[in-house]
Structure formats: structure tokens, C-alpha cells
Amino acid sequence: MVNAGDSRAALIRAGAIEFITKEHKPDDADEAARIENSPGGFVLNGRVNGDLNVSRGFGDGRFKQVYKPG
User: Fold this and answer.
1) Rama region for 14: left / alpha / beta (φ>0; ψ in -120 to 50; rest)
2) pLDDT at residue 44 in the model
């Protein structure tokens, strides 16, 4: 499965929609911890560095420069 930012994958099973991925939102506890453990990263008003409302996605290069895994 693949997930990027606020795009989600869904599965229709027996006529019911089942979301099979999770949105990467800054107000999620795990995502907030990941962001805040990044050099210079913080969550303010549910947004990455007070600006971006999606914590992982394409087209947010200036935020990617802050996060260095490891």
C-alpha cells in the first residue's frame, strides 16, 4: 500500500468502504513526535512548523530539508 500526505487508499468490501491507509496529519501523536524529533521541526495549531497541514507529501521540499531520518 502507498500513502502520501492526505491521499488515502480505500477498499470496497461487501459494499462497504474500508480505508486501508492512514492520513499523515501533524496532529496525530506519532506524526507529531516524528516531526518534533526532527531538527527545527515543530507542530503549531495542527500544522508542520505552523504552516503545512500535511506531514508527508509531494511538493513540500522546504519541509523535507528539516527532517533527516536516523
Assistant:
1) left
2) 92
